[in-house]
Amino acid sequence: MILSATTTGISPKEFIAQYGDDQRYELIDGELIEMEPTGPHEQVVALISRKLNVEIDGLDVPYFIPHRCLIQPLGALSNGRGTRPWVAPLGTFNAFRPDLVVLDEGELLNEPLWAREPVITLGTTVKLVVEVVSTNWQNDYARKYEDYEALGIPEYWIVDYIGIGGKYFIGSPKQPTVTVCCMVNDQYQKVMFRRGDCLKSSLFPNLKLLTDQLFIGLDPGNGEGSSGC
């Protein structure tokens, strides 16, 4: 996401009350962040959403992709097999607005805020989060990674279709990369997919999605001649 900080010192409760319905903002470490996605960014999100909806229908599972949703860690964070204590670093708070999230309908009854507003607080409700990287890549690779892992969200994709993340995260030379993080023993294990690779998802084992389909907006010739998955 392309982000710019506009103010500081906002609590999650205040943020949800004032900006919960406003797609332009999210809250990261107590800062109000303005989101300014580009056209190509939205193309990538739309493609992934279309592909995942096909998989959800094919598996006939009670999952869905909401039009809008906030993820706000609340109290103890669930690891999927229980709960573990969590304290927000340095006393700050987050209310993330992911580019795409897959939710489990069966878990929504346990969500304290869902009946009133599309806010998720428990990791057990979330099956997959996708963040499509833009200018402020640090949040996707570090800040959000930490909280999604602590929440116990089973799968997290970081789609860096431009290849602008730090070398520590995507290697050198930098290139377009999709990092798929899967939960193993309460920690994320990361696998990186680059040009010509087929994405592999534990949640959607039959998914057929070539990375070139996500990177093609950067280079009109990219993807030509690809054999597919």
Explain the overall architecture.
By secondary structure, this protein is α+β, with helices and mostly antiparallel strands. It has a domain at 12-156: tt1808, chain A. The chain is 23% helix and 25% strand. It is built from five helices and 13 strands. The strands form four sheets. A six-stranded mixed beta sheet has the order 4-8-10-11-12-13, sandwiched between helices. Helix 3 links the parallel strand 10 (126-132) and strand 11. Mean pLDDT is 85; it is low at 1-7, 76-91 and 220-225.
Essential attributes:
229 residues, alpha+beta, tt1808, chain A, six-stranded mixed beta sheet, three-stranded antiparallel beta sheet, 5 helices, globular, disordered N terminus
Q: Could you give a quick summary of the protein structure above?
A:
With 229 residues, the protein is an alpha+beta fold. It contains five helices and 13 strands.
CATH fold label of the domain at 12-156: tt1808, chain A
**Number of DSSP strand runs:** 13
Rough outline: globular
The low-confidence runs, each spanning 5 or more residues with pLDDT under 50, are 1-7, 76-91, 220-225
Give the helix level as a range of percent. Answer: 10-25%
Please state the second-level CATH architecture of the domain at 12-156.
Alpha-Beta Complex
